[in-house]
Amino acid sequence: MATLKALVVDDASFVRDLMRRTLRNQFPFIDVEEAPDGRKAQAMLLRSTFDLVLCDWEMPQMSGLELLQWCRQHEAYKKTPFVMVTSRGDRENVIEAIKEGVSDYLGKPFSPESLGKKITKVMGARLRSAAAGTAKGPTSGGAFHGSADLLTGAATPTAEAPTAKPQPQRAPATQPASDNAEVSTSSLTSLRFANNTVQAVLKAVTLTEARLVARRTETLPAILEPAVVDIAVTDETVARLNGYVHQLQAVERTQDTEFVSVTIRFVDDDPQKMEDLSRFISRFQSR
């Protein structure tokens, strides 16, 4: 029987699914509910009481920062653990979230292990108490032992060091491109996974996916692994697109091919990100 409640807030269903599975696998004593945006989360927080909030930053209706501000203004959630889980890694954004009372910060893409460690860190003794109570009950089993190992493991790691980069000013909006409008280009970009960052060449992109080429010597991910593609929309604006590895393919038809093609399928529903990506596509189509 669950003794704690967590609210997962993210506009990407793929990310919500990953966080929900992680919680249920590592912390079976935590009941999980989810919301697709900050406004829906706000309504859920008013109807019920939650012991943990895992929240994306960039969402439609209400951003993660706005939801954090709202929580810290309400007595019931002034001290509730609130973890910002987002692809924003700029130092200025981290500092802003800290000023508003965020409990910790986890960059996308993330692994189930790193998420579990963050939850263990921010919930502390309350989590250990809930885990101990579950262990004594009749429903304890293999799933609990994984979380117990996590709770009693090595010292909790510090928050990931953010990349120092100023938040850019957005350029004026342009006419959106269609989902299937593909642009072919060759620009160097960062392809970020939970445990490493790969420098890759962006070869083609639509509003739903991107195709990149990386050296075979790079540490490449598995199919369906979460990823973030950093696309330079302008010289000053970078769109950070959340997605997952949809396809891996050898560039050459030989076993010793030097390059591998990686297709990332996007999961973002954020209108601003789609506008930024549409502007990028339109800019290259007009050349």
From TrEMBL:
Entry annotated with the keyword Phosphoprotein: yes
Low complexity composition bias: residue spans: 156-177
InterPro entries assigned to the protein according to its UniProt record, in alphabetical order: Bact_response_regulator, CheY-like_superfamily, Sig_transdc_resp-reg_receiver
Record bears the keyword Heme: no
Residue numbers bearing the 4-aspartylphosphate modification: 56
Top-level taxon: Bacteria
Biological process according to GO: phosphorelay signal transduction system
Pfam families registered for this protein in UniProt: Response_reg
Domain Response regulatory positions: 5-123
Region (Disordered): 156-183
Alphabetically ordered keywords of this record: Phosphoprotein
Name assigned to this protein: Response regulator
